[in-house]
């Protein structure tokens, strides 16, 4: 698949069942991070505030949700039902998405992103 121009085009490229899941995921992320900007990064939908908060992508047997390594560590106990790696959570396409968990992870990323931004800002003002 060539890089889509926007998230609508990305989501529209999938069959109806996957498209519904992607729209649910998209809506959940937007609700959890209302000030984030929706972009395409690395060919995937992503949500950016100061830095990228989360990405998602559909694969053949799962939907990947990419909140970064720190979020995976913080939510490790709740992620045991899912296949994970350093910065990735894989949700099986045969099961409902854990939207409440996605909300909490996205909200965590918003707070973490803001804290990192404030830290960088404070370091710059000390120079």
Describe this structure in words.
- By secondary structure, the protein is an alpha+beta fold.
- The chain has a single domain (7-126), classed as Alpha-Beta Complex (Aspartate Aminotransferase, domain 1), CATH 3.90.1150.200.
- It has helices at residues 7-12, 16-32, 69-74, 99-126, and strands at residues 37-41, 44-48, 52-58, 62-66, 83-85, 88-92.
- A six-stranded antiparallel beta sheet has the order 1-2-3-4-6-5.
- β5 (83-85) and β6 (88-92) form a beta hairpin.
- It is globular, with a radius of gyration of 15 Å.
- The mean pLDDT is 95.
The CATH architecture term is Alpha-Beta Complex
Q: Supply the CATH class.
A: Alpha Beta
CATH domain topology: Aspartate Aminotransferase, domain 1
Radius of gyration: 15 Å
What class would the helix/strand composition place it in? alpha+beta
Strand content: 15-25%
Straight-line N-to-C gap: 45 Å
Shape: globular
Low-confidence stretches: none
What series of H and E elements makes up the topology?
Answer: HHEEEEHEEH
Brief summary:
This protein has helices at residues 7-12, 16-32, 69-74, 99-126; strands at residues 37-41, 44-48, 52-58, 62-66, 83-85, 88-92. The protein is an alpha+beta fold and 127 residues long.
């Amino acid at each position: 698949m060539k890089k889509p121009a926007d998230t609508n085009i990305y989501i529209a490229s999938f069959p109806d069942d996957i498209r519904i899941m992607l729209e649910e995921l998209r809506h959940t992320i937007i609700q959890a991070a209302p000030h984030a900007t929706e972009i395409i990064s690395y060919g995937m939908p992503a949500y950016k505030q100061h830095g990228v908060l989360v990405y998602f992508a559909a694969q053949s047997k799962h939907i990947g949700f990419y909140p970064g390594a720190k979020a995976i560590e913080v939510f490790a106990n709740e992620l045991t039902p899912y296949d994970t790696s350093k910065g990735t959570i894989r949700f099986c396409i045969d099961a409902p998405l854990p939207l409440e968990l996605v909300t909490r992870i996205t909200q965590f990323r918003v707070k973490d992103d803001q804290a990192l931004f404030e830290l960088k800002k404070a370091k710059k003002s000390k120079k």
